[in-house]
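User: Let's play a game. I give you a shape written as tokens, and you guess the letters that built it. Ready? Here's round one.
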């Protein structure tokens, strides 16, 4: 399977290049960066520290997509929407690990998914997606006597909050309860907030240091507390999950999928 990595010079992009090189059944055929990137013209493998890959970093994603079977994309929503449109035209797999989406930005992705296989997740980790499955089950099983709080911590350079993973877990909890996360999410508390409302899903965000990603979902009643947690130790886990998603999507019909689909956790 011929894969293109967009944002190839970034921290996540370099991990994706490494993951493609380490996985049987896939080959790197394109590496894309922004037109102003100082890394244009460099070998993507050398930049990632794995030796020459004979793939030069370019800003010509149109040509790269036309000669590929899939694209791995951990960039920003504006760029991902543009890539999705081109992926649809090329009829290829588009794996989207981008976070920071606005409420109305899924609609263009649904349009692109009529022609391409889009696999979008706030976290490509196999463990996190299993955690989301467990959170959904716990929320479904436990009544509103249990308050739900989502806690996350990331490195100081992360630009969006709550994290895509925290929102993924919040959505899982809301699905389990049969409620709308948008209607019941509480993303900040400051000052005299009043008592906590039953059924709300709270979020707490921490930033600092070099933490890759830590997430916990707490179910708390007056008598007991259940915590489900995941800690990322290596960014390669996200990259390996993205490559696995691309391979899974290779022979699928056009549509908008998630990592839950990839892992068979949609029951």
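Assistant: Ready! My guess for every position:
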């Amino acid at each position: 399977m011929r894969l293109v990595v967009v944002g190839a010079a970034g921290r996540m992009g370099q991990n994706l290049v490494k993951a493609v090189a380490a996985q049987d059944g896939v080959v790197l055929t394109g590496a894309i960066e922004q037109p102003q990137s100082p890394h244009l013209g460099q070998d993507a493998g050398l930049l990632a520290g794995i030796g020459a890959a004979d793939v030069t970093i370019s800003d010509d994603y149109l040509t790269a997509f036309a000669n590929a079977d899939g694209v791995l994309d951990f960039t920003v929503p504006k760029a991902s929407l543009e890539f999705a449109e081109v992926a649809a035209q090329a009829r290829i797999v588009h794996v989207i690990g981008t976070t920071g989406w606005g409420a109305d930005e899924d609609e263009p992705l649904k349009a692109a998914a009529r022609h391409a296989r889009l696999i979008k997740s706030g976290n490509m980790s196999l463990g996190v997606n299993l955690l989301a499955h467990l959170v959904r089950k716990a929320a479904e099983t436990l009544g509103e006597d249990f308050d739900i709080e989502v806690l996350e911590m990331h490195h100081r350079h992360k630009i969006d909050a709550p994290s895509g993973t925290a929102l993924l877990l919040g959505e899982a909890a809301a699905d389990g309860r049969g409620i709308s996360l948008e209607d019941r999410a509480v993303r900040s508390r400051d000052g005299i907030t009043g008592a906590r409302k039953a059924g709300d899903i709270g979020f707490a965000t921490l930033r600092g240091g070099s933490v890759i990603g830590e997430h916990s979902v707490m179910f708390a009643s007056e008598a007991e507390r259940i915590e489900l947690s995941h800690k990322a130790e290596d960014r390669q886990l996200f990259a390996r999950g993205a490559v696995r998603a691309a391979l899974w999507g290779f022979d699928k019909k056009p549509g908008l999928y998630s990592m839950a689909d990839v892992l068979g956790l949609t029951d």
